[in-house]
Amino acid sequence: GYMAPEYALEGFFSTKSDVFSFGVVVLEIISGKKNTGAPKLRQNLSLLGYAWNLWKENTPFEFMDQRLLESSNSIEVLKCIIVGLLCVQEDPGDRPSMTNVVLMLAGDITSLPNPKQPAFVARKTMSSSSSSSSYKQDLTLTMTLPEGR
């Protein structure tokens, strides 16, 4: 749940991978939900997808844990949502550096850029009604053995 897509899919690790992980943790804290193993969210989305959809619908306060909403400065929490979404953007080049994250958190909310779609928006789940007999997969194995000349 914290692994950056470029590392998960291509094995490429950079400082932007750490930024991605930080963004996931920020969004988990704000929502009070885990990114993985969370209760089923609206439209079968991951936590990142759920946050993104609420952002696009202009209802980010629905993402906040109710206890946090009641006991905090909502503008500061909104700033954290924006920064969290900036950190989990799909393209590592679009993510801020950790230095910029610190500056964003200390700065004014009006100076923050708009986030782009995060990675891992949709989540696939296995249906409990599907059985192994209805699921077919080709399990052919091809093995090549090198031989000397």
Automatic annotation (TrEMBL):
Chain ranges of the Protein kinase domain: 1-120
GO molecular-function term, one example from the UniProt record: protein kinase activity
Source domain of life: Eukaryota
Chain intervals for the UniProt region annotation (Disordered): 127-149
Name of the protein in question: Protein kinase domain-containing protein
Species per Swiss-Prot/TrEMBL record: Ambrosia artemisiifolia (Common ragweed)
